[in-house]
Fold:
Amino acid sequence: TQLLEQSPQFLSIQEGENLTVYCNSSSVFSSLQWYRQEPGEGPVLLVTVVTGGEVKKLKRLTFQFGDARKDSSLHITAAQPGDTGLYLCAETYYNQGGKLIFGQGTELSVKP
Amino acid sequence: NAGVTQTPKFRVLKTGQSMTLLCAQDMNHEYMYWYRQDPGMGLRLIHYSVGEGTTAKGEVPDGYNVSRLKKQNFLLGLESAAPSQTSVYFCASSPSGGGTGELFFGEGSRLTVL
Structure:
């Protein structure tokens, strides 16, 4: 059974600081997605990474996929209170009909 | 812009009671999922479906049953509710499964079992 480990589990920072969230697997990812969830709502897709070494940017968010495709990171530059939320990575099991398994999440709080 | 709709939004049950959560999507998606979310546990997959008439077990299927009789609906049933099933339940749909396919989530259903 593959496990997705996210770290840190909780992160509380001041507005303007930078932060990095990590997602690691015991095995090679086929592809990885990052979602963001706000209180009282369902998760919303931020990005999908597929190729080892891939880097994608979404405004102040930078997503990296490790060369060996066993890890991924999310870096936020100059965090804002609006970035507050739960960040989740998720992996697809293609050989099991598109089953998507999530990590336990990183709860981010950005204080003004 | 309905997307994925879950009913009910809130429910309180007594131990041993049964209930059904309904998920409806209007995007003609093939794949549908039921997850539960507990503090510090992220989202855990209960059951999923890759098309009308199909269902498959996820990570935590015990105590739950599902049915996908119509493409747009995915039902999650609890036959005999237990306090351990107190959770927030999320339904999602996708045109092509995970991977490069995006999952679209409902707003969640909060279930409390006393």
